[in-house]
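ERR on first pass: missing label on line 2. Operator R.T. fixed the label and resubmitted. Corrected input:
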Amino acid sequence: MLRRILFLGFLAMLLLAMVAGAWAAAPDPTGAATLKADPGKAVDYVWVLVCGFLVMFMQAGFACVESGFCRAKNVTNLMTKNLLDFVVGSLAFWAVGFGIIMGTDWGGLIGSSKFFLAGDSYDVETYLSFFWQLVFAATAATIVSGAVAERLKFKAYLVYSAVICLFIYPVYAHWVWGSGWLSKLPFGLGHLDFAGSGVVHAVGGFVGLAGAIVLGPRYGKFGKDGKPRAIPGHSISLAALGTFILWFGWFGFNPGSTFSAHQLRISVIAVNTTMCAASASLTALLLVLGKTGKYDLGMALNGALAGLVAVTAPCAWISSWAAVVIGIVAGFLVVGGVYFLEALKIDDPVGAVSVHGFNGVWGLLAVGIFADGTYGNYATKAPFVEGLLFGGAGAGQFMAQLIGAVVVIAWAFGCGLILFKVLDAVLGVRVDPHEELQGLDIVEHGTPGYPEFYITRS
Amino acid sequence: MLRRILFLGFLAMLLLAMVAGAWAAAPDPTGAATLKADPGKAVDYVWVLVCGFLVMFMQAGFACVESGFCRAKNVTNLMTKNLLDFVVGSLAFWAVGFGIIMGTDWGGLIGSSKFFLAGDSYDVETYLSFFWQLVFAATAATIVSGAVAERLKFKAYLVYSAVICLFIYPVYAHWVWGSGWLSKLPFGLGHLDFAGSGVVHAVGGFVGLAGAIVLGPRYGKFGKDGKPRAIPGHSISLAALGTFILWFGWFGFNPGSTFSAHQLRISVIAVNTTMCAASASLTALLLVLGKTGKYDLGMALNGALAGLVAVTAPCAWISSWAAVVIGIVAGFLVVGGVYFLEALKIDDPVGAVSVHGFNGVWGLLAVGIFADGTYGNYATKAPFVEGLLFGGAGAGQFMAQLIGAVVVIAWAFGCGLILFKVLDAVLGVRVDPHEELQGLDIVEHGTPGYPEFYITRS
Amino acid sequence: MLRRILFLGFLAMLLLAMVAGAWAAAPDPTGAATLKADPGKAVDYVWVLVCGFLVMFMQAGFACVESGFCRAKNVTNLMTKNLLDFVVGSLAFWAVGFGIIMGTDWGGLIGSSKFFLAGDSYDVETYLSFFWQLVFAATAATIVSGAVAERLKFKAYLVYSAVICLFIYPVYAHWVWGSGWLSKLPFGLGHLDFAGSGVVHAVGGFVGLAGAIVLGPRYGKFGKDGKPRAIPGHSISLAALGTFILWFGWFGFNPGSTFSAHQLRISVIAVNTTMCAASASLTALLLVLGKTGKYDLGMALNGALAGLVAVTAPCAWISSWAAVVIGIVAGFLVVGGVYFLEALKIDDPVGAVSVHGFNGVWGLLAVGIFADGTYGNYATKAPFVEGLLFGGAGAGQFMAQLIGAVVVIAWAFGCGLILFKVLDAVLGVRVDPHEELQGLDIVEHGTPGYPEFYITRS
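pass 2 clean. output:
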């Protein structure tokens, strides 16, 4: 049934695209005219594409982190999810999502053209923009996977992947990056989010929170006394490798968001990105050390990721000392967030909500605090951005950031709640208890992750 | 004996290179003159090199996919093969192979200079071209490894690696990319293969098919009733990571094949590459789901790779909807191909023949069908390329593609058959049955892959 | 206690940075003026940043190689070390180290400004330079980790990581790359080290040697008869993947060291890098084959790395045949080095001293032998570099290289010895015997690497 719908939907989309493609003339599919008009485009394209490749590679990082932090009995399931959200998300984003972000604006709410990259979208500039937006949308999609790990039906995950890339992510991204209403708030320079602490990470994190709540905790996560129990991941080396890959990929995510190599500010962005990750990781390590006396690798890894998330919005508008300070706060937030969710009996197996949700919001606010007035925004032609600590415009900017933070939480959590509730009513979202105990690999996929190794069941 | 020959051959090559190096003047080893003549070269070099690095990184992807899909008892062997084909292949390609592709043409059949990069090859342009061609040759070489996995003597693999990079690959690549006869076929614009669906993937796939046939199936692959039995891979996480790495690397493979950043078409190529992979992966997943009711990760991974292979030839000449359609066909082909080979009792442990062979050929034909007349070929100065669905020149182009497809199958399969038959006669290609049962790691390499883990033997 | 010092030091650093930041005007934090003065900077920034990202990714490679070559019971510890040396090293290098390398020179001995990137360091050029130097410093830091693996207290490693990035590495790097005294030796063109065979690898290797000596061998490494025993690594696939990642990352390390895309010589550098790795890997494989009859993957992997290290200094000044020859020597050196250290009863679990120390020194000497007079040094405006085999200036250059080689050994080994001796006196460097037997993961980190797998204890 689901398959039939997927197949037919897919077919319908294709037909539409072919028809639409026949209608309109293609402005510059070779790129010759675009290059002639601006010879500097060659290096800009190299920059944007290479950075986009790095962002795409973050899919591998998320897959490894999530699989490493979960149990061996679900590793096939987790890898399939991480592959298929990119696969389904790409098709959904191509069909609809991109048009919602970057199509002709309707009242600041939604874009309404460029679907299927059809018609006059057959243009090197549009394709470049599509590629960039696609890898960002796919990042938001894959973040959720961690929060709902080890207990979600695969079928429901396929539908979720389509919906977030069709609608939830693109609408909010349009509001911030597609000249939508949030970008035009009458405070400061409007809501600003350089590379997506809010657009990508908070959206992913809070949809994930909704998913984790609707699903409920994994069997065994909370004891009869209500106390949380650690469910250790099956491969710390896989999780660590994944984190390194994500850190590497983030150098595409943040500096690439200038969308131009002619903004030499990219060197500042790269430095801020890595310094914030470092200070957040060290902070998280030391906090857990103070509490448990152990050097906790899991928290150091999540600390690094938290710093990367937090610096994503402000990375272009701050200098290195601010990145370090933002990272320290991120380290506290990620550790506190994990304990906080456990206290609420919410089970987020990999810490995705703390890392991406809470720190995504922190990143938005950090723009309104630390932006130091040395840099604007190339793409939107915004003048120099100032936060609370710098200049008189700071209060307005902070207000714009605060509004965006509230909106992203409400939108992502709200949409996520509706989506997972509807999915639960229609398909059921949670696997059967015996399947959960046995692991999802056998029942859903027929393929154990490590068939030759003796593995204890937990 | 073999070692002595390898050593002496190696020494002879070096002496030759040094002598040759002393003969000729080096045209532009610093690159200053080249840059002065065309200041745009700086960004072109960055583009080509970075893309080349990504292609080289695909070696890691192939190593992980192949190891993950095979058994733990052979993982040291598989990793050694994947390292050494790059190592031996690089030396062989440096000594001879590159000169065969890019050296002075002899009658459209073979190149005949630039061996050892000696003499006037000490030039930035020649070195750049060498680097690019090297990573492509090494890709073809490593594809075969998967088809002959878990039963080939390592010694034979070393010789194979040299031969494919010395001769088999370079000769065919010369025909298509070195102004050889296929590129000058009197149909359409001659045989066209943008980034190597045929040159790289079909060559690797059909040499692999020959190897798999000469070797015969692994012990236990086919039951006494003749029915194929699944031999599950030892690490699904390794295989999945490898696929992500390959997908990432393919963004070097395809867009980089413009060999110029001044072709802004690179954005279109990047989009087509990823869309075809997505649609092929989803198609393969759904096909197996329809058959078995399971979400098969192995097939989804191979589906993605099949889409990447299929789009490699046409990626520059199509728009996104065609990429999606080509991917759907690729998904059918990879699933069908796996069943077809099993029906023929051919054992291809990782599906290399289906992924690279069958889909490589499909990619060649796809050029002749979907090329939409919006783009030519920068390197060869070919005008706009048209396939059957677009314009009158399509029939001729399709014919040129068909001829190339037949030729690549005949050449690769023929050379592969001769090579493995000769190797079998001289060295023996198959390990002893007890070694195969025990795993190749102990006997050939003396190092088990996971010495501390309890592993079941299968 | 240690934590308190770390915390307070950290706080002090931050305050200093903020104060300093308030003092001075920022020359060009947006980069607009820099780009206007030289529009070619756009492509240079892309080149340097992308190469820097690749170098950063080598952290993942080192983590995988080291973990793969060690035992499962220490994998959490090894991954934590590999993460935290980057984290702590980044903060230390930001606070102090970078200023020592690139700050205002004091008598050829040390730099003395740009600490915390404060004040007028808020400039795109300075940040770019910082990013580049940071990833190199972090590489030196992480090399040591392998030599001291499986027995060092984590606390001591944290302090070590800070010290090498604060002082040991930056001082020597200043001498060679920061217009220090070694770069001005009155022989040849002064001591030359293109991408850091000496500055990065020999420093890391010889500090590691000191650490390995101070720590003593792991329990069980040498039998009662004094003979070395092999302690096999727990995951050959992880080690192999790590090596591929390192090879990939080295394409940033070496070609990126032009610090400019306008040096088309980058194509030559890329080719030399890969050819040297190939010939070293094959040489190492064949040497062990001749001795044991086995195709030893560990040695082939280390051979490739040895070749990469050896070519790092000369890569810009040689042609491909010299790279191949340098690689052959590197292959002998890495195999010989491993046996030599075992004969001295020094336990270097992953071969870091052979790979990075001995071959780092070999790379320095190779400049003085093989530099062929075709290329100079863009950054330092040095004219064409000549070694012993080419031209009359070769003897002087060789002398300069020899002096640098002696100095780097003395400096790195000396500083390392003092550091680890002091650490031993203050904190103790070696874990308790029962902890070493049980593995460091439980006691230090509370997290086993693979909690669900049955693992034999060795």
